[in-house]
Amino acid sequence: TPGAALEVNGYVKFNTPKVRTYRSSDQTISATTATNVDFDTETYDTLSNFDPSSDRFVAPTSGYYYIYGHVTWNNTLTSNTYTRTGIYVNGTITSCDEVPIPYGSNGLFTNNISDMLYLNANDYVEIKAYHTNGGTASLKGSSSYTYLVVNFISK
User: Fold this and answer.
1) Are 137 and 108 in contact (CB under 8 A)?
2) How far apart are alpha carbons 128 and 119 in whole angstroms?
C-alpha cells in the first residue's frame, strides 16, 4: 500500500508515489484556452499513478504532495502577450505562474509552477498551459524543457 514501510537489509524504504513525465515533441496550444499539457513519456512512475491517456496524476492515498510543472514555450510568441501555466486539482486551478512577454522579445520562455498540496485519495492533478498570443503558440517538447514531477511527502 502507498506509504507502507518496508525494511530491507536494515534500511527502511517507503512505497510512495513518485512521478516524472514529460512532453517528447512540440505541442500546439490555442490562444486563450487553458489546455492540458500532453505529457506522453514517463521517466519514472513508481506506483503507476500517472495516466498518459488523460494527462493526469491520480493520488493513490490522501496526504501532502509536492507538485512541480515546467513548461517551455517555443519562439512563437509575440510581444505584449503573456503565458500562464497552472496546477489544476479536480479541474480547478490551485496555483499558477504568469509571465508577460515584453516588447522586442525573442527566444524561449518558461513557466515554472510548484506547490505542496493536500490531496485526497483519487484527486487528480493536471498541468494546463495558456497564452494570449493570438492564433496558436507551441510548447517545446523534450525531457528537459516541458515536464511534470509529483512526489508524495507525508500523510
Assistant:
1) no
2) 18
**What's the DSSP call for residue 141?**
P
Closest CA to 72 of 48, 37, 117, 43: 37
User: Comparing C-alpha atoms, which of 123, 129, 132 is closest to residue 152?
Assistant: 123
Span 83-99, average pLDDT: 95
Distances (CA, A) of 9 to 6, 12, 86: 10, 8, 42
Task: Give residue for cell 516541458.
Answer: 146
The reported pLDDT for the residue numbered 104 is 56
State how far the Cα of 9 lies from the Cα of 65, in Å rounded to an integer.
Answer: 28
**SS3 at position 9:** coil
d(CA 125, CA 83): 20
Write down the pTM of the prediction: 0.88
pLDDT digits (tens, 9 = 90+) for 65-85: 999 999 999 877 777 788 999
Q: What percent of the chain has pLDDT over 90?
A: 70
Contact 84, 131 (CB under 8 A): yes
Closest by CA position to 110, among listed 82, 136, 87, 91: 82
